[in-house]
Write a structure and sequence with these properties.
It comes from Flavobacterium taihuense. This is Substrate-binding domain-containing protein. InterPro entries: PBP_domain (IPR024370), Phosphate_ABC_transporter (IPR050811). By secondary structure, this protein is an alpha/beta fold. The protein has two domains: 122 residues, Periplasmic binding protein-like II (D-Maltodextrin-Binding Protein, domain 2, 3-Layer(aba) Sandwich); 134 residues, Periplasmic binding protein-like II (D-Maltodextrin-Binding Protein, domain 2), CATH 3.40.190.10. It is built from twelve helices and 14 strands. It is globular. The termini are far apart.
């Protein structure tokens, strides 16, 4: 090979190398922890709180999120199949699930940011607003001696179904007197129109209902629940979440597998930070860390006192 061809080849290699680096830097510069575009796969049962967090985040930073609301199984499958890199789920990853990422040499960044719960609801015409968790579990196992006419779930692959099946020690739902729809709103609507049915929904859909659901919410009762081997009935309220007396609690997590300092990291830090935790507090769920309240004292009076 002539000296000219050697020089030409060297020039081309250097040119290609620097252009690749330039393209790589240009791509990475499109997204940082506070700017760019990203998709979040969300467990449908906790969509309202994630929508609130995203709305405020986008109002403060040059960022745009696309929310993909799915059942828990669909969200996790998207994560394991590399179709999703940021997800919000209503439980932590199991050891077996973490092993999948360990084999890929990926360490997911997992951030807990709130505590939600699962609620039982019934038709407004039902005056009994108390229910024992054991009664529900027995019904799931086939016992039809209770006042329950049917159980209604949002989706056969949802986190609420998985939660209740784990409690009952079941691998699937019964074929008789157990119904599934696609969304929590469909469950609420069905229960509001059918007496004797017990709906199983995420508390987040009750604490932050869509405006179009107000008439439906007005026609249902949220039941107070007696835990297994426990005394007393407790409503799914923020206070009972904080005291740990409500028996159907679950934590919410942001799982970030982006592998770089992108919007996944920024959003998780925001949701777990002061502003994000105040959003959780206002939503009716329990923040992971209760935001502090600062009072400015002026001349012996706080600025909250009336003048």
């Amino acid at each position: 090979m002539s000296r000219f061809n050697i020089y030409l080849l060297s020039f081309l290699v250097i040119f290609i190398f620097f252009n690749c680096k330039k393209n790589e830097n240009t791509t990475s510069n499109k997204e940082t922890i506070l700017k760019g575009e990203a998709t979040i796969f969300v467990d449908e049962t906790v969509t309202p709180i994630v929508e609130d967090e995203v709305m405020v985040f986008e109002s403060k930073y040059d960022a745009k999120f696309t929310l993909n609301s799915k059942s828990e199984s669909e969200v996790l499958n998207a994560l394991f199949n590399k179709k999703a890199t940021i997800v919000v789920i209503a439980r932590n990853l199991t050891k077996k699930e973490l092993n999948i990422f360990e084999q890929r040499k990926i360490v997911p960044k997992i951030t807990k940011f709130a505590t939600d719960g699962i609620a039982f609801v019934c038709n407004k015409s039902n005056n009994d607003t108390l229910i024992a968790l054991k009664e529900v579990i027995d019904f799931m196992k086939g016992d039809r001696s209770s006042k329950i006419k049917g159980l209604v779930f949002d989706n056969p692959n949802s986190s609420t179904v998985n939660y209740m099946n784990n409690l009952a020690g079941l691998s699937g739902l019964a074929d008789k007197d157990v119904y599934t729809f696609k969304t929590n709103n469909e469950v609420l609507k069905f229960v509001s129109e059918n007496n004797g049915m017990i709906g199983v929904v995420g508390v987040n859909w009750l604490s932050q209902p869509n405006a179009s659901m107000n008439s439906v919410i007005d026609n249902i009762n949220v039941l107070s629940v007696k835990g297994l081997n426990k005394d007393g009935y407790y409503a799914p309220s923020q206070n009972n979440f904080a005291e740990g007396t409500y028996p159907l609690l679950r934590d919410l997590y942001i799982v970030n597998c982006q592998g770089y300092s992108g919007l996944g990291m920024g959003f998780a830090s925001f949701a777990a930070g002061d502003i994000g935790q105040r959003i959780v507090l206002k939503s009716g769920l329990l923040p992971y860390q209760i935001p502090t309240r600062k009072l400015n004292i002026i001349r012996g009076k706080s600025n909250n006192e009336k003048k």
